[in-house]
Design a protein that fits this description.
Length: 199
């Protein structure tokens, strides 16, 4: 990877990129949910962008970093602290999200890496590896010693990268599809232990 790659914190102005990365990382599940939220006449992308542009919330720009190559946005990392004591899954939670929440709850107190995605034109340049290294710096800076993430069983390239970087499988849950069109059949929770930051 050349010296033309920089990693910077995302801003509200990056919301358009963030929603594309968020959607890419989860095989159109966010778009599927946003469409249901806004209804048949609403704009799901605008809804997603409005959420990403907020200063708070898990999918806020404040939890995201972008890799730029020669000034162009190329890849995204988004993550946040998992609850030390996971809350019970609310009874009205859409079934499609239940297995994901069950897996997240198996890594309490970790830094949860929710999104790692690269635009097609920039793949194979080491951006994923650079952002995973950045994730470790962020987690250490927050005093966490574990990073967790969830990948689909169909995310073969991503899973190879995670394995190469020391992530290990912890558990699996079947994908609940409903009317969401996706090839994946299982969600896989992966974690990596990291050294806490020096005092």
């Amino acid at each position: 990877m050349g010296t033309n790659m920089v990693i910077r914190g995302a801003t509200a102005a990056d919301a358009g990129h963030l929603v594309r990365f968020i959607n890419m990382a989860a095989d159109d599940l966010p778009l599927h949910f946003w469409q249901k939220t806004v209804g048949p006449d609403g704009d799901p992308w605008a809804y997603g962008q409005e959420r990403a542009a907020r200063a708070t919330g898990n999918f806020s720009y404040s939890n995201a970093w972008l890799a730029q190559v020669q000034g162009d946005v190329a890849a995204c990392l988004l993550g946040y602290l998992a609850d030390d004591v996971p809350a019970p899954i609310a009874p009205d939670t859409p079934p499609i999200f239940v297995p994901l929440l069950e897996l997240e709850a198996l890594a309490p107190g970790s830094w949860y890496l929710n999104v790692l995605a690269t635009y097609d034109a920039f793949r194979g340049q080491g951006l994923g590896s650079a952002l995973l290294a950045h994730a470790e710096d962020v987690a250490q800076g927050l005093g966490r010693d574990t990073i967790s993430l969830i990948a689909a069983d169909t995310h073969h390239d991503a899973r190879r990268l995670y394995a190469a970087k020391g992530y290990a499988e912890v558990a699996r849950r079947p994908v609940v599809k409903g009317d969401w069109q996706v090839d994946a059949s299982e969600w896989i929770l992966l974690t990596k232990s990291i050294s806490p930051a020096a005092a």
